[in-house]
Task: inverse folding
C-alpha cells in the first residue's frame, strides 16, 4: 500500500516545527548570553564606583581604571546593539515557530476531517448493507392491508 501523502506531509511539517524550535532555542541562548555580558559590564562598573568611593587614593584608581571604563562603555554600546539584533532574531524565530506549528496543525486537522468523512461513509455503507438484508428477509409489499 502506498504511503498516505498527508501523513508524509505531516511528518515533514513536524520536522519543520522541531527545527524552528531549535532555531528559537539558539536565538534565546544568544540573547541570554548578550544580556549576561551586559550585566557583567554593569556589575564591573558598579564595583569600580564602589571601590573608588572607599579607596583613600580614589583619584589614582580612577586614572588607572579610566581607560578600562571607556572600553567598557564602548563594549556596552556594541553589546546593546547586539542585544537588539538578538531580540529581533528571537522575535522572527518565534513567528516562524508559530507559522510552522499552524501548518502542522492544519495538516492534522485535514487528516482528522478526512478520517471523519471516511468513517461516516463506512457507516453509511454498513447501514445500506443492513437495509439490504432487511429488505431481502421481508416479504414484498402487496399493497393490501387487511
Result:
Amino acid at each position: 500500500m502506498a504511503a498516505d501523502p498527508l501523513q508524509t506531509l505531516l511528518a515533514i511539517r513536524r520536522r519543520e516545527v522541531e527545527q524552528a524550535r531549535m532555531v528559537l532555542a539558539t536565538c534565546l541562548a544568544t540573547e541570554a548570553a548578550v544580556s549576561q555580558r551586559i550585566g557583567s559590564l554593569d556589575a564591573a562598573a558598579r564595583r569600580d564606583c564602589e571601590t573608588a568611593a572607599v579607596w583613600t587614593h580614589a583619584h589614582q584608581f580612577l586614572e588607572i581604571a579610566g581607560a578600562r571604563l571607556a572600553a567598557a562603555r564602548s563594549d556596552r554600546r556594541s553589546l546593546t546593539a547586539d542585544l537588539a539584533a538578538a531580540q529581533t532574531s528571537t522575535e522572527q524565530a518565534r513567528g516562524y515557530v508559530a507559522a510552522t506549528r499552524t501548518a502542522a496543525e492544519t495538516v492534522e486537522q485535514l487528516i482528522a476531517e478526512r478520517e471523519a468523512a471516511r468513517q461516516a461513509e463506512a457507516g453509511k455503507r454498513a447501514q445500506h448493507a443492513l437495509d439490504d438484508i432487511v429488505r431481502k428477509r421481508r416479504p414484498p409489499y402487496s399493497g393490501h392491508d387487511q
User: Anything to note?
Assistant: The mean pLDDT is 88.
